[in-house]
Amino acid sequence: MPEDRDWEAYKVPPTRTPVSESTSSVPNPITFIQTAFNYVIDAPVTFVREWIERQQAKNKFYYYHQKFRRVPDLSECLEGDYLCFFEAEAQWRRDRMVDQEIVDIVRDRLGACKQREGPNQFQNCAKEVEQLAQVTKAYQDRYGDLGYHGNARTCLMKQKHRMMEERKAQANASE
Amino acid sequence: MAAMSLLLRAAAAWGARRAASGAAGGARLPWLTGTARLPGTGAPVRHSSSHGKRMFIIKATSFYDTRFLNLLRFYIFLTGIPVALFITYVNIFIGEAELAEIPEGYTPEYWEYYKHPISRWIARYLLDPPEKNYEKEMALLDIEAKKTELRLTELEARRLMRHRGDGPWYHYETPDKNLIDNSMKSTPDN
C-alpha cells in the first residue's frame, strides 16, 4: 500500500478560530452531519483498520536503510584499474540518487511553506526560496548537462572544466 | 380484436419491409423511419399471440465475440483470483515492515532492507545477495581486464619479435645450405 505522507514533517500550527457562542435556538446542522459521518463511515473504517493493525502487530518485523561503505573515488583510481572504476561508478550513482532526493525534499519544503502561509507566502517563504535556488544551482553545476549517459567519468571531466574556468576567471580577475 | 391484431401484423410487416429496404437502399436517417429501433433487421414470424409481435431478429453473429470474452475472463481469473486472495492475505495478516534505525553492532541481512513481505521473500529465497551479485560483476570485469592486458602484451611481443628478430617467434624455415649446387658458380666461364 502506498505510504501516507509524513504528517509530522510539515506540521501546521493549530488554527486559532475562536469558539463561537450560537445565539439562535436552531441547532447547528453541521453537528448532525458530523455525527452521521462518524457513525456511518468513520467508526466502521476505524474499526476495520484497528483490527488489521492488531493482526499485524502479532509478528512485527523491521526494515532498515542500507549504509554503504565509502570506496575510493574515481579521481583516486589508477589508470586501467577497472574494478576501482566499477566501485567508484556505483558510489557516484548512489550519491547522485541521494542528491536528487535532497533537491526533492527542499522543493517539498517550499511547497509546504507556500501552503502553510497562504497569502503571506511571498514575504514569509524567502528562506525556503533562497535554499531551493542554491540547491538547484549546486545540482545543476554538478550533474547538470551530463545527459542520460552521464557517468562518474563525464562528471569528473565536467568538474575539471569547472575548476579550469574558475582558475581562468581568478587569473583574469587578479590581473 | 382480430382486426386489431391483423392491423398490428400488417403494420409490423410494413415496418420490416421498410427497414429491410432501408438497409439495402442506402442512407436514411434512422429517426425518420418512425418505427422502434430493432437490433438488426427483423422479419415477422408466425405463431404470434396477442402479447406482441414475434420477430426473427437478423443481425451479425456475436458468438465468437462472447466466446472470446468468456474464455478471456475465465483464464484471467483462473490464476488472478488466487493471486489476488494471496496478496490480500499477506497485506492484511502479515503487513509491511516498519522502518527502524540499525541497532548497534548488528548488520542486517540483505533481505531486511525491503519493506513488503513478498519482496523480502523474493530477495531472500529467489535472488542472490547484492554483495554476491556485485562480486560476480567485478569478477567478470577482472577476467575481461586480464584478457585485454594479455592480448595487448601479446601484440606488443609479436611486434617486437618481428622487428628485432631475436625471439622464438618469426623463425622461417629456409632450405639447408648444403643442398645448394655450386657447380655452375665454380667456373667463371659458364
UniProtKB/TrEMBL annotation, chain A:
It is a peripheral membrane protein. Keywords: Electron transport, Membrane, Mitochondrion, Mitochondrion inner membrane, Respiratory chain, Transport. It is found in: Mitochondrion inner membrane. Its main location: mitochondrion. InterPro entries: NADH_UbQ_OxRdtase_su10, NDUFB10. Residues 1-25 are annotated as: Disordered. GO terms for cellular component: mitochondrial inner membrane; respiratory chain complex I. Accessory subunit that is involved in the functional assembly of the mitochondrial respiratory chain complex I. Complex I has an NADH dehydrogenase activity with ubiquinone as an immediate electron acceptor and mediates the transfer of electrons from NADH to the respiratory chain. PANTHER family: NADH DEHYDROGENASE [UBIQUINONE] 1 BETA SUBCOMPLEX SUBUNIT 10, NADH-UBIQUINONE OXIDOREDUCTASE PDSW SUBUNIT. Belongs to the complex I NDUFB10 subunit family. This is NADH dehydrogenase [ubiquinone] 1 beta subcomplex subunit 10. It comes from Oceanites oceanicus. The lineage of its organism: Eukaryota, Metazoa, Chordata, Craniata, Vertebrata.
From TrEMBL, chain B:
Keywords: Coiled coil, Electron transport, Membrane, Mitochondrion, Mitochondrion inner membrane, Respiratory chain, Signal, Transit peptide, Transmembrane, Transmembrane helix, Transport. Residues 1-15 form the signal peptide. It is found in: Mitochondrion inner membrane. It is a single-pass membrane protein. Residues 131-158 form a coiled coil. The chain crosses the membrane at residues 74-94. GO terms for cellular component: mitochondrial inner membrane. Belongs to the complex I NDUFB5 subunit family. Accessory subunit of the mitochondrial membrane respiratory chain NADH dehydrogenase (Complex I), that is believed not to be involved in catalysis. Complex I functions in the transfer of electrons from NADH to the respiratory chain. The immediate electron acceptor for the enzyme is believed to be ubiquinone. Complex I is composed of 45 different subunits. This is NADH dehydrogenase [ubiquinone] 1 beta subcomplex subunit 5, mitochondrial.
